[in-house]
Amino acid sequence: MTATTRSAPGEESPDGPRTATAAPPRRRSRARSRALVPWGFVGPFLALFTLCFVLPILYAVYQSFIQIRRYGLFGEEGRETVFAGLDNYTRALGQETFVDSIGRVLLFGAVQVPVMLGLALVLALLLESASARWPGFFRALYFMPYGVPGVVASLLWGFLYVPGLSPILDVAGLVGLEPDLLGPSGVLWSIANIITWMFIGYNMLILVAQLKTIPGELYESARIDGAGPLQTAWNIQLPLIRPALVLTTIFSIIGTLQLFAEPQILAAFTVNIDSAYTPNMAAYNSAFTDNDYNVAAAQSVVVALTAFVLSFGFLWLVNRKDRRR
């Protein structure tokens, strides 16, 4: 009777190298379960994102390429869905009011976005300066307007723009000024004032969060080198919070093209805001006043593409400057 020898795992047997044994089934099932844990957290978000965001966009794109033809005076003889190609887009861009609304919000964004982000940047730098007192209180105070719903804010500011009710106009009259805040040339900038008032605090918090990631050693080195507050802000803070500035700019560009609630509410205070004052209002009017859902879908897609082009165009310019550096 011959004796058999056992070698330890990983050692070579007298007959040659021994292959590693496979992992037990229980260990493999545990590894699979651990791999599925992240998907359990992300899954609900992906499901809601697909249901509430992706599918509506795809459905709007589908609606923009079809037309519903009705037969009979009131469609009593039936209807059919036909492929319309780019006909809905041609009709949408053929509406002068819709094209004017796009130009109007682009002018709005070219002025309002730099002003709003500039003020948000100044507030963020002041709150994060070494001499700032009660920064938490002032952060909450500046952020408070963002908590006011856009409809409520528009109503409040609407009454402040009406002559006879507005203390702003009363004070301006005392110094000989008579601004027409709801006139044809002033109503757009009255809307810009509402948006700026609401979103300065929101953008300020994003910038403050980025400023807090700057190591304190950099500030200490700047003080040792004799840098003042302006030099510290220009040479240290602004370069390091550039990602936050890019992010807030993109958010503001997209928000500008989505302008809807504020002019819709102010339309009750003035005749200088029509039903197609902004692109979203024009699409809303096409869908629910003219009952032309396909043209409204085409207008929505045009607005989305405009936001996409502007946002990625801005990113391309920023990345191009980084590559040059």
Radius of gyration: 30 Å
Main-sheet strand order equals 1-2
Mean pLDDT: 87
Structural class: mainly alpha
Cα distance spanning the termini? 81 Å
Tell me, briefly, the overall form: globular
Helix proportion range: 55-70%
Characterization of this structure:
- The protein is mainly α and 325 residues long.
- It has one domain (95-324): MetI-like (MetI-like fold, Orthogonal Bundle).
- 67% of the residues lie in helices and 4% in strands.
- The chain has 13 helices and 4 strands.
- Strands 1-2 form a two-stranded antiparallel sheet. Strands 3-4 form a two-stranded antiparallel ribbon.
- β3 (66-70) and β4 form a beta hairpin.
Task: Write a compact overview of the structure shown.
By secondary structure, the chain is mainly α.
Task: Summarize the SSE layout with pairings.
Elements: E1 12-13, E2 16-17, H1 25-64, E3 66-70, E4 79-83, H2 87-93, H3 96-127, H4 135-143, H5 150-161, H6 167-174, H7 187-211, H8 216-224, H9 229-240, H10 242-257, H11 261-266, H12 279-288, H13 293-324
Antiparallel strand pairs: 1-2, 3-4
Helix pairs in contact: 1-13, 2-13, 3-7, 3-10, 4-7, 5-7, 7-10, 10-13, 12-13
